[in-house]
């Protein structure tokens, strides 16, 4: 473990930051300062189709406006693709990944009604699991787009051997900073996508690989990513990586109880600045001193 605790803020530059992002950044930054730790900025720009230079510049501007600073250089995930490919090959070598050529509509049609993963997507019905190699070779030869999914049952068996049958858990800090031991339930994700069709990684794979590479000891993020921790802990065990401490803070919602999002064009920090709202007022609204 590092001599000093390491915190990070890791937004995706595919839109403008909103006050929900501000809450994550401020909590992590203040915790790092209180603990005498390091604060890192990582830009999760693996989605090249949606990443824009103006969004990168806007994130840096917004964070400086909030009064935050961080260690340089900023890590861009787009520079880390070889590491993600190597991690995926490791899982494949372990017999824990398999190719899937199914489309979203095919998965939706074949999935059992009501079976959903924590993100609300249809639970994968195993359309390509155990397919004969000749079928896979034919699909590859035809140039069909391919995702790589984790064989969850096999991964759980492997993890149980590594853990010597101890339960898969993670440490979650409550709102008061008190650690709680939580049992992870990655099985509710089913055979999740680890390598996407359009890019040689996924959020789950890249965040686990990079948190370990950067020596991150504390992960602060929104409650909407709480369930993802189940899958992240499984990958950490399979890769024999250190276990960070997690804290999933409250979500900022609108008047209808809907979580703020970039895609819905919710109030951004940039628009607040243009409207004359100061950083101190944003902190006050968020209850972060």
What are the SSEs and their pairings?
Blueprint (H helix, E strand, L loop, with lengths): L5 E4 L9 H16 L3 E6 L9 H13 L9 E2 L4 H13 L3 E4 L3 H7 L22 H9 L5 E4 L1 H11 L6 E5 L5 E5 L9 E3 L7 H11 L4 E5 L5 H12 L5 E5 L19 H6 L4 H8 L3
Parallel strand pairs: 1-2, 2-3, 9-10
Antiparallel strand pairs: 4-5, 5-8, 6-7
Describe this structure in words.
With 289 residues, this protein is an alpha/beta fold. The chain has helices at 19-34, 53-65, 81-93, 104-110, 133-141, 152-162, 203-213, 228-239, 269-274, 279-286, and strands at 6-9, 38-43, 75-76, 97-100, 147-150, 169-173, 179-183, 193-195, 218-222, 245-249. A three-stranded parallel β-sheet has the order 1-2-3, with helices on one face. The mean pLDDT is 94.
Cα radius of gyration in angstroms? 20 Å
How widely separated are the two ends? 30 Å
Overall pLDDT: 94
The fraction of residues in strands falls at: 5-15%
| SSE pattern | EHEHEHEHHEHEEEHEHEHH
Number of helices: 10
Strand runs, count: 10
Query: How is the biggest beta sheet arranged?
Result: 3 strands, parallel
Q: Considering DSSP H and I runs of 4 or more, what fraction of the residues is helical?
A: 25-40%
Flag low-confidence runs: none
């Amino acid at each position: 473990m590092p001599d000093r605790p390491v915190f990070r803020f890791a937004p995706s530059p595919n839109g403008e930051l909103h006050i929900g992002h501000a809450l994550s950044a401020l909590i992590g930054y203040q915790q790092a300062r209180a603990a005498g730790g390091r604060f890192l900025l990582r830009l999760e720009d693996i989605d090249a189709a949606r990443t824009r230079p103006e969004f990168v510049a806007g994130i840096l501007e917004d964070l400086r406006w909030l009064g935050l600073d961080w260690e340089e250089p900023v890590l861009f995930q787009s520079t880390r693709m070889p590491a993600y490919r190597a991690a995926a090959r490791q899982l494949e070598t372990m017999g824990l990944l398999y190719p899937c050529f199914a489309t979203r509509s095919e998965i939706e049609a074949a999935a059992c009604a009501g079976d959903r993963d924590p993100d609300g997507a249809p639970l994968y019905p195993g359309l390509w699991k155990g397919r004969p190699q000749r079928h896979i070779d034919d699909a590859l030869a035809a140039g069909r787009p391919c995702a790589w999914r984790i064989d969850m049952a096999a991964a759980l068996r492997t993890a149980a051997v590594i853990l010597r049958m101890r339960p898969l858990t993670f440490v979650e800090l409550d709102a008061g900073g008190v650690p709680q031991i939580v049992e992870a339930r990655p099985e509710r994700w089913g055979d999740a996508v680890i390598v996407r069709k359009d890019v040689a990684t996924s959020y789950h794979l890249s965040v686990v690989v990079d948190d370990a590479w950067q020596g991150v000891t504390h992960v602060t993020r929104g409650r909407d990513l709480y369930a993802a921790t189940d899958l992240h802990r499984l990958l950490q065990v399979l890769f024999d990586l250190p276990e960070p401490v997690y804290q999933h803070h409250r979500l900022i919602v609108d008047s209808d109880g809907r979580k703020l999002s970039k895609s819905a064009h919710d109030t951004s920090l940039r628009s607040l600045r243009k409207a004359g709202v100061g950083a101190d007022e944003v902190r006050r609204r968020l209850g972060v001193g």
